[in-house]
TrEMBL record:
Gene3D superfamilies membership: 2,3-Dihydroxybiphenyl 1,2-Dioxygenase, domain 1 (3.10.180.10)
InterPro entries: Anthracycline_SecMetBiosynth, Glyas_Bleomycin-R_OHBP_Dase, Glyoxalase_6, VOC_core
CDD domains in the cross-refs: VOC
PROSITE patterns attached to this UniProt entry: VOC
Organism expressing this protein natively: Saccharothrix coeruleofusca
Organism lineage: Bacteria, Bacillati, Actinomycetota, Actinomycetes, Pseudonocardiales
Name of the featured protein: Glyoxalase
Domain of life: Bacteria
Amino acid sequence: MAKVTGIGGVFLRSRNPTRLAGWYREHLGVPMSDHGTVTFHWDDSATDDHPGTTTFALFAQDSDYFGEPGQRAMLNLRVDDLHDLLGRLRARGVEVLPDTEDSEFGRFGWCVDPEGNRIELWEPAPGM
């Protein structure tokens, strides 16, 4: 039987894909092409201690977790040092939400891209 084996991608609408791709490259280090695409190969960076996972989750229509009610998708990006990245983003004038969250899954923080999309930044707990 055919089945889903992982997340193939996350796609966002953009008013200016070239500018937004540049923002993701400059501020978050995402190696996007000039066309606004990147493919991550988890097999290349996974270890027994850090297997590298991607999660697909559904949220209720009225959830405020994404921020603005019109935001239809949210990126969750794994990071290796949440505190440092949030500080660098603030120093560069990027909108960083003031709260962070610690859980058994790791640490979470949020920033907002130039088009108003909330981005979740996740420093995984050891072993995740």
